[in-house]
């Protein structure tokens, strides 16, 4: 998805045109589908490690899932993100480019260079993450509930995504974890776009301009940006996953985001905020590379 950041800026009068926005949204949707299909098997291992202590490592978790639930279990909860991730990534890239053009207009108005500073790149990315929060929070909540429910038919809590949504709405819990999701999204996508743009700017002079950077190199920078995204925001993701697998109603263990942070620290210390980081980073490279290269 190199063009989402790498293309030369359009003239200010075209900056907010429908055509540019539509292009951003469509490109983002294509990248989002790539994210889900490449990353879902890694994601279920990550979530299981984050929310339970029954697995000593990622390999043991993957082996247990395969042996006891079958190969299709690695794609539990796929339908919801597959339907929603296109919208999420569209909002991410659409929001980033809207913020970028707003910064460009402000730079021109104040007599500064058109190109955004790296601080502005981070700000545009954080805005994209914030805009995405209200989509990503319920989508990920539904996926995580389906990924972690008992496998045996008689013990399942939800018959599928629709039943899960219905029950979460009944419990007024569809947006459970919204606060920590907001922190995660802002930090994650601020760093994602910052890391990618920093790499592109460093490479451009040696290539005679960023338009000459080959697709494989753009994909590599996208992959590295994915690593930066997760390393910078992972503790927030652990807390989010724990809150979104918590009991509902009277069975609720965590009364707030702060309480979840405190209890995680008391239970596992610093390491508790990094459970599942291995498969997450393993997934991040190809998923993020595919998103920027689409």
Q: Count the beta strands.
A: 0
Oligomeric state as shown: single chain
Shape: globular
Order of helices and strands: HHHHHHHHHH
Could you characterize what this model shows?
- With 294 residues, the chain is mainly α.
- It has 10 helices and no strands.
- Helix 2 (18-51) crosses helix 4.
Helix-strand layout with pairing:
Layout: H1 3-6, H2 18-51, H3 58-69, H4 79-109, H5 118-148, H6 161-170, H7 178-207, H8 215-244, H9 257-268, H10 277-293
In short:
With 294 residues, this protein is mostly helical.
List keywords for this structure.
294 residues, mainly alpha, 72% helix, globular
